[in-house]
Amino acid sequence: MSTRPRPPSPSVPKPSQPAPGVDALGATPAADTFDLANRQADRLTGQILVAMPTLTDPNFAQSVILICAHSADGAMGIILNRSLERPSFEALLQQLDIAPVPPEREIRLCAGGPVENVRGFVVHTTDWMVDGTLRVDDGLGLTTSLDILKAVAQGRGPRECLLALGYAGWGPGQLEVEFGQNSWLSVPADEALVFKGDNETRWRRAMQKLHVDPALLSPTAGHA
Questions:
Q1: CA angle (144 as vertex; 86, 101 as ends), nearest 5
Q2: Checking DSSP bridges between strand 115-125 and strand 134-135, what pairing results, if any?
Q3: Given CA atoms 12, 18, 20, 26 in this order, what sign does their dihedral have?
Q4: In terms of DSSP H, where are the helices of 82-190?
Q5: In angstroms, rounded to a whole number, what is the distance separating the alpha carbons of residues 217 and 224?
Q6: What is the H or E stretch that residue 135 is in?
Q7: Rounded to two decimals, what is the model's pTM?
Q8: What is the pLDDT of residue 6?
Q9: Are the C-beta atoms of 118 and 63 separated by less than 8 Å?
Q10: Domain ranges of the chain
Q11: Structure confidence at residue 147 (pLDDT)
């Protein structure tokens, strides 16, 4: 889904292929492409990345990112703690000609990352799925179909969800290099960290889940 014609992609690192499960046509690769049960141990799909205090890139400083797909071809994730003031959910539905307006239900919007930042990605619980949904893990999915926004507008849809505009992307081996540079910590995703609470506290809550005090981290701290 998109809110207007897509501009040239931002000049930030991203996979050489479209984001897994959300390519330019909205098609989803065969299910075995993202067989989580057989993924290699170093793959981070379903994990939440927590930026180290030393990561100062304004796109990612103190960011909390759900990794939706990670393979030898690269990685794709949604930043969870960047608030998006405009458009409102109601205004977005109007742009997409989705009724009813006002909707029966509101969901949180966030800026999901610097890549394709006019394109919509819905992170949600897996009690609601469609054929094009990418299963991130047992409890979380990623959908780009307008069907999910139509369901939410009608007061239906998944129990928990958020709408992100844009995503974060890494090329082959890039995320592994950044881990080697101690740019990130990782923690398993859970609903509370993904959906609950405010964005201002999400990074610190992620650190607390890791039992880490950010003030005690050094540039050479190891992985949690």
A1: 50
A2: unpaired
A3: positive
A4: 89-95, 146-153, 174-180
A5: 11
A6: strand 134-135
A7: 0.80
A8: 36
A9: no
A10: 43-213
A11: 95
What class does CATH assign to 43-213?
A: alpha beta
Range 84-97 burial, b when 16+ CB lie within 10 A, else e: beeeebeebbeeee
Q: What contacts 81, CB < 8 A, 6 or more positions away?
A: 62, 63, 64, 110, 199, 202, 203
Which tokens in the block code for residue 82? 């960047």
Cα dihedral 42, 47, 52, 58 sign: positive
pLDDT for position 76: 97
CA 170: distance to chain centroid? 13
- Compute mean pLDDT per 10 residues along the chain, 224 residues long, and list them: 38 37 33 34 84 94 97 96 92 95 95 95 97 95 96 97 97 95 95 96 96 76 46
Under 8 Å between Cβ of 104 and 155: yes
Q: For residue 170, give the nearest of 42, 70, 49 by alpha carbon.
A: 70
